[in-house]
Amino acid sequence: MAVVFLVWASLAPLALGARVAVSGFASESRGPKPGHRIAIVGAGPAGVHMASRLRQMGHTETTLLERSDRVGGKSLTIYLNEHGEECEQQMDASGKVDTASCVAHEMGTCFLHNGYHSIRELVDEYNLTHVVPPEGRAMFSHFSTDRFHSQDMDEFVTSSIMDGVRSGTIYAPSWAIGSKLKVMVALLRAVKKYNTLHKEIFGEVEFSMPHRLSRETLQRINMTFLEFLQSNDLYALSGFLMFAHAAQGYGYVTTIPAFYGLWWITPELLNGYMQMSFREELEKFYDPKSEFFQQIRGTWVRAVVTAIVGGAADVVKRTTTMLPEGYQKIWTTIAEKDGLDVRYGVEILDQGIDRQLDDPSAPVRIKYRQKGKNEVIEEEYDFLIYSAPHAHAKNFVKDVAIQEESIFSSLKSFVLATTLYSSEPVLDYTDSARRPIMYEADKMSGPSHDGSWYADRWDDLIFGQPITGRQTRVGYQFYENYCQGGDMMCNSDRTPNEGGAMESSERALRQFRGELERQNVSGVNTLRQYPWPYFHHFPQEAVQEGKVWDLLEMQGQRKTWWIGASACFESVHDVTNYNLMILRKYMGAKIIQGIAMG
Ligand SMILES: Cc1cc2nc3c(=O)[nH]c(=O)nc-3n(C[C@H](O)[C@H](O)[C@H](O)COP(=O)(O)OP(=O)(O)OC[C@H]3O[C@@H](n4cnc5c(N)ncnc54)[C@H](O)[C@@H]3O)c2cc1C
Ligand SMILES: *[C@@H]1O[C@H](CO)[C@@H](O)[C@H](O)[C@H]1NC(C)=O
Ligand SMILES: *[C@@H]1O[C@H](CO)[C@@H](O)[C@H](O)[C@H]1NC(C)=O
Ligand SMILES: *[C@@H]1O[C@H](CO)[C@@H](O)[C@H](O)[C@H]1NC(C)=O
Q: Same structural domain for residues 441 and 300?
C-alpha cells in the first residue's frame, strides 16, 4: 500500500491520466518482491547496507556471497597494541570500549565528512561512537623552505593563493590589505562562486548522485576539473582542491572529468573544509561592521560565521570525524546485529550466475565453491543484487546483456595503496604542533608523480596514547596508470586481504621505501600493504553519453540491481545513498533518518 501511496504522492501534481501509469509502475516492481530469495554479491559497505535496509522492509531471505573472509570490503581496520601486536578492543569496567590501548589503524575508509548524513545515521543507529581528530595537517610542497620542514595547511593555501595574486591570475581588491585578508577575500569569493555554479549545474541533490544532466549542461562541463576551475575564474580554489580531491584517490584535477570533481566537492564539503582550515582566520574577521564583512557577506559567509561563533548544535557535526572503534566495525556490527546470512570465501564459478532471462519467472541460478572446499554449491534465488566491480561482471554473470555490457565496458579504475609501517620518530608529528596528518601537495599535482608517497596518518596520535619511541603510521600512494610493468596491480579484479597476508605489489613497495628514504625517514619497517583497485568511474566520453544515468534507469530489469561504487562514486557516503535512492525509486521505500520502511 505504502508503495502506491508514495509513488502517487510524488506524481500528484500530474494530470489524472497518470493514474494508470502509476499503478502499472508500482505493480511492475523494479525490485525484489515480498518473499523473494535475494542473493547479494559482495559484502562490502554497499552489500551489507543493502541487506540491512531490505531487512527493515521485511525482506529476510537475503544471502550475501562474499569472496574474502570478512565483511566490510574497503573498510578495513587493523588493531595494534602498544607493542605493535594485533589486538581486539575490549570493554572496560564501565562498559565502554577501550579504544586507546588497542588502536584502530585504518587501511581503507577513514573519515566521516560534514555532509555524511547517511553514515552518521548508521553510527547512531548501531550505537557506535565517532570523534573529531585533533586538528592540524602538515603540508610539504614547493612552498616549504626545504624538504624537511612542513607548513600548516592554511599556510600552504595562503602561499598558493598569494602566488596567483602576484602573477595576476587571482584578483584581490585594493581594500584587502595584507596577505591574510587578500587570501580570505579571494577564497571566500571563489567558494561563493563555486557553490553558485554547483547549484546551477547539479541543482538540488538529494541522494548524493545528481539528476540526469541535460546535454547543454553536460557540454558545459566537458573538460577536466582543473579546466573547469580555470575557465570559471576559480583559480583561488585550484591549489587547495588539487590536493583535497587527489588526496582521496579520486584522480588528479588535471585529468579527472569535471563531473567527478563537482560530484565530490559539494558546497557542503567545501564549506566544511574551509571552516576546518581557516577557523581562526574567520573568527578574526568576524566583525559585522568591518569592511571585509560588508564586502563579502552573503548567505555562505553568514552560514559559516554562524556555525563558527554561534555554537549551534550542528557545529560539531560539521567537522571531519573518525571512528575510534574502526570503520570496519560499522559493517561487522550491522552484519551481526541484523543477523545477516554471509557466506565467506565464495568463488563464483566462471559464468556461474545464470539469470535465465528468457523466462521472467525462472530463478537466478548461482554456482560457487567455498575456499578450501571442492564441492560446487548450486543455489537458486529470485533476485540478484550485484555490488562487486561491474567491470568484471561478465566473468561471473553468464547472460550480461548488450545494454549492460555497453555501460560496464567503459568503466575505468585507479589504484590506491595504503601501507602500514613503523619507523623512527618523524619530527613533524612529534613537535609541539602535533599534527596527525601529513600531505605532500606536489605529489598530487598530476600523473608525473604517479605512485609516489603523498600522505601519512598517525592513528596513535588520534585514538591512542602517542608512544614516544617508534611510530606506526599509514602511508598513501595513488596510481592513475597502475598497469605499467605488468605486475599484479594490473589485475583490477583483486580483493586485497584474502587470507590476511600482506598483499603488496613489488613496484608499489619499492617506490614507497624509496620515497621514505629520500625523506630521511629512518628505520622503516613495512608491515602490510594494500594496493586497492579503486574509484571505478566513467571517462569523459562516457560521462557525456550519460552512462551513469543509463545504469540507474536500467535497475530492476533482468532480475538485477547493480549497486556499489561502480554504480555511483567511491565512498561509503555515496554507496549507501545510492541504495536508499533505489529503494525509494523502485520499491517506494520511505526513508527516515537512514532507515528504510516498506
Ligand atoms: C584507502 C582508502 C581510503 C578511503 N577513505 C574513505 C573515506 O574517508 N570516506 C569514504 O566515504 N570512503 C572512503 N573510501 C572508499 C570506500 O571504502 C569505498 O567506496 C566503499 O568501501 C565501497 O563499498 P562497496 O561495497 O561498493 O565496495 P567494496 O568496499 O570494494 O566491497 C566490495 C566487496 O565485494 C567483494 N567482492 C568483489 N568481487 C567479488 C566476487 N567476484 N564475488 C564475491 N565477492 C566479491 C569484495 O571482497 C568486497 O568485500 C576509502 C577507500 C580506501 C581504499
Ligand atoms: C542502541 O541503543 C539503544 C538505547 O540503548 C537501544 O534501544 C538500541 O536497540 C541499540 N541499537 C542497536 C542496533 O543495538
Ligand atoms: C567534449 O569535448 C571533446 C574535445 O575535448 C569533443 O571531442 C567532444 O565532442 C565533446 N563532447 C560533447 C558531447 O560535446
Ligand atoms: C638527510 O640525510 C642526508 C644523508 O644521510 C643528510 O646529509 C642530511 O643532512 C639529512 N637531512 C636531514 C634534514 O636530516
A: no
Residue 553 placed within a domain: no
Residues 90 and 12 placed together within one structural domain of the fold: no
Report pLDDT for 14. Answer: 34
Residue written as grid cell 613496484: 507
For ligand 3, atom 14, the nearest C-alpha belongs to: 219
Do 305 and 422 fall into the same domain?
Answer: no
CB environment 332-366: b (16+ within 10 A), e (fewer): bbbbeebebebbebbebbeebbebeeeeeeebbeb
Cell numbers 508514495: residue: 6
End-to-end CA gap in the chain = 9
222 lines ligand 3 (CB under 6 A): yes
Give CA–CA dist 390/563, Å, rounded. 9
Give me the percent of the chain exceeding a pLDDT of 90. Answer: 66
Query: Is 279 inside a domain boundary?
Result: yes
Cα 191 from Cα 300, distance rounded (Å): 9
Which of 127, 128, 331, 340 is the pocket-test mutation for ligand 2 (most atoms within 8 Å of CB)? 127
Number of domains in the chain: 2
Nearest CA to ligand 1 atom 10: 571
Ligand 2, atom 12, lies closest to the CA of 126
Indicate whether 480 belongs to any domain: yes
Q: What is the pLDDT of residues 498-540, one digit of tens each?
A: 655 567 889 999 999 999 998 889 999 999 999 999 999 999 9
Q: Cβ distance 551 to 562 under 8 Å? A: yes
Using CB atoms within 10 Å of the CB of residue 40, give its burial: 0 to 12 exposed, 13 to 18 middle, 19+ buried.
Answer: buried
**In a shared domain, residues 156 and 300:** yes
CA atoms within 13 A on the CB side of 406: 11
Pocket test for ligand 1, best of 340, 377, 572 (most atoms within 8 A of CB): 572
Boundary (domain end) residue, out of 253, 284, 309: 309
Question: Residue type for 147, please?
Answer: R
Domain hosting residue 492, numbered range? 77-108+412-537
- Which of 428, 519, 520 to mutate to test ligand 4, by most ligand atoms within 8 A of the CB atom? 520
Is the beta carbon of 199 within 6 A of some atom in ligand 2?
Answer: no
Q: What is the pLDDT of residues 143-156, one digit of tens each?
A: 988 767 788 888 88
Question: Residue 75 burial by CB count (10 A; 0-12/13-18/19+): exposed, middle or buried?
Answer: buried
